[in-house]
């Protein structure tokens, strides 16, 4: 039913977390972003921003032609609405989940991504950039830690797409220069999600995808990803 165009990155993991939790049938179509497969015409037809993940729903609710969706936040919202799971039906609960989903998409992911780039992958270590993004990472961790005080999950007592969106970006916390011991509420939330069977399955799927690359050593992959152009 769902064709998932995927590579095992934080944004890719968001969608496999949902699919493994929901039980919706799906197939993975790997998009090796280190080899530039995200620039192939077939993929650009469904993801014009040349970014994965993207999905194609071959059996959309309207009974029409297959429906494609790109951008991880939109995909999570689409799948939640399709399945009727992991997002409350009432307006107040729904918008609480969406607030935190968009917080992740607009803040947590991009800022932590810049942290990774300047800390680990940039050929030149720029102290100002490193300090800026490490400090912003720490601030965002603090926001999430405060939000989780007295709550099992980000939007309240129930696991939701807001949690699925945020969790994969916290997984590489050590590479971001963070220690979870400094954020006890976040740490408890993180460990609870990590222990979920669906989380274990989702990350095991990522490990099965072949052709992984190391951006600290693979110069061709660095050119493709950081040059933001298709390989020539």
From TrEMBL:
Enumerate the transmembrane spans: none
Alphabetical list of PANTHER family matching this protein: DISULFIDE-BOND OXIDOREDUCTASE YFCG (PTHR44051:SF19), GLUTATHIONE S-TRANSFERASE-RELATED (PTHR44051)
Query: What superkingdom does the record give?
Result: Bacteria
Q: What is this protein called?
A: Glutathione binding-like protein
Annotated GST C-terminal domain residues = 90-213
What range(s) does the GST N-terminal domain occupy? 1-87
Q: Which family does the entry's similarity section mention? A: Belongs to the GST superfamily.
Which Pfam families does this chain map to? GST_C, GST_N
- Which CDD domains does the UniProt record give? GST_C_YfcG_like, GST_N_Ure2p_like
InterPro entries for the chain: Glutathione-S-Trfase_C-like (IPR010987), Glutathione-S-Trfase_C_sf (IPR036282), Glutathione_S-Trfase (IPR040079), Glutathione_S-Trfase_N (IPR004045), GST_C (IPR004046), Thioredoxin-like_sf (IPR036249)
């Amino acid at each position: 039913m769902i064709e998932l165009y995927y590579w095992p990155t934080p944004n890719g993991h968001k969608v496999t977390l949902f699919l493994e939790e929901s039980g919706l049938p799906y197939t993975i179509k790997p998009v090796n972003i280190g080899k530039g497969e995200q620039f192939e015409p077939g993929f650009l037809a469904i993801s014009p921003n040349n970014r994965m993940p993207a999905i194609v729903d071959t059996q959309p609710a309207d009974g029409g032609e297959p429906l494609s969706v790109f951008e991880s936040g939109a995909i999570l919202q689409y799948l939640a609405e399709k399945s009727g799971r992991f997002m409350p039906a009432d307006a107040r609960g729904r918008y609480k989940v969406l607030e935190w989903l968009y917080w992740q998409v607009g803040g947590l992911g991009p800022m932590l991504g810049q942290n990774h780039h300047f800390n680990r992958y940039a050929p030149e270590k720029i102290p100002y950039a490193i300090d800026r993004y490490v400090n912003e990472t720490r601030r965002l961790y603090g926001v999430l830690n405060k939000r989780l005080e007295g709550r099992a999950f980000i939007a309240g007592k129930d696991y939701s797409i807001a949690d699925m969106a945020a969790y994969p970006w916290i997984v590489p916390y050590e590479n971001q220069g963070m220690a979870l011991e400094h954020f006890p509420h976040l740490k408890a939330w993180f460990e609870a999600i990590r222990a979920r069977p669906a989380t274990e399955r989702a990350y095991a799927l990522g490990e099965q995808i072949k052709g992984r690359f190391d951006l600290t050593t693979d110069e061709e992959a660095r050119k493709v990803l950081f040059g933001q152009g298709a390989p020539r």
